[in-house]
Amino acid sequence: MPLEPGTRVRVKTMTPPGHIRTPFYLRGKTGAVERVLGPFANPEELAYGQDGRALPLYRVRFRMADVWADATTPTDTIDAEIYAHWLEPA
Amino acid sequence: MADPHDGTEQGSARPFAPASSDPSRRWHDMGGTLAGPVPGDEHDFALWEKRVDALVILSGLKGVFTVDGLRRVLEDMGEEAFETMTYYERWVAALNQNHLEQGTYTVAELGAKMEEVRARGETYADAADAS
Fold first, then answer.
1. Which strands make up the sheet holding A77-83, listed edge to edge?
2. How do the pLDDT tens digits run along chain B, 131 residues long?
3. Is B33 an interface residue toward A (CB < 8 Å)?
4. What positions does the domain Nitrile hydratase beta subunit-like N-terminal occupy (chain B) (predicted)?
5. Does the beta-carbon distance from B19 to A23 stay under 8 Å?
6. Which residues of B, range 43-102, sit inside 8 Å of A by Cβ?
7. Which letter does DSSP use for residue A22 in this model?
8. Is residue B40 included in any domain, yes or no?
9. Half-sphere exposure of A49 (CA within 13 A, CB side)
10. What's CA A62's distance to the chain center, in Å?
11. Beta strand pairing status for A30-41 and A54-63?
12. Residue A52: its chain B contacts at CB < 8 A?
């Protein structure tokens, strides 16, 4: 079952080599699921000519202050689209 | 065709801040770093650049590879390629790499075709005269 909107999640801090769609600047950061975008083929497998297993893709919303400690607009938010296997419970 | 290295074409080397000194951050993963102003200059695409673009789209429609495969090769080409090759020079290299991997043609077939095309001449006009 995909995570419900509002669920707090942390982006994994792993740094494997290879094609990755999870931006480095969000790794280890905590946000909340804004919506479920649906299952999509995993680009990390598509990139190497495989079929790509379908995974839930989430739009995750982060507070600027939770991404950049010196954010000048700390309560603004930034959304990023992140696949399920990069998220862990926060 | 304009000199692809004269600094006016899209994708040519422009100064940018290093993404990070963290060795686990790959060179292309620049999101969230300061980048300066966005260049607003327009660019006329050469015929060969339009053809490369069309080939990438067609390859996707034919199921040979996806944008993910294109990006993977562009990233693996490294920062030096980003700084020394134009946008579509990098695209055609990534297009070719994916076709070789998927077996569309072999390295030897590619080599023979390149020789055949080279023999037509340096320009589109020369090639038209030769045919």
1. A77-83, A54-63, A30-41, A8-11, A87-89
2. 334 443 334 443 434 445 457 888 999 999 888 888 988 888 899 999 999 999 999 999 999 999 999 999 999 999 999 999 999 999 999 999 999 999 999 999 999 999 999 999 988 888 887 66
3. yes
4. 27-122
5. no
6. 65-66, 68-69, 71-72, 75, 98, 101-102
7. S
8. no
9. 12
10. 10
11. antiparallel
12. 68
In chain A, which among 35-54 make CB contacts under 8 A with chain B? 43-44, 46-49, 52
Inter-chain Cβ pairs, chain A and chain B, closer than 8 A: 46
Domain tally, chain B: 1
Domain ranges for chain A: 8-15+22-37+57-89
- Looking at domain A8-15+22-37+57-89, its CATH class is mainly beta
8 Å CB contact of B98 and A43: no
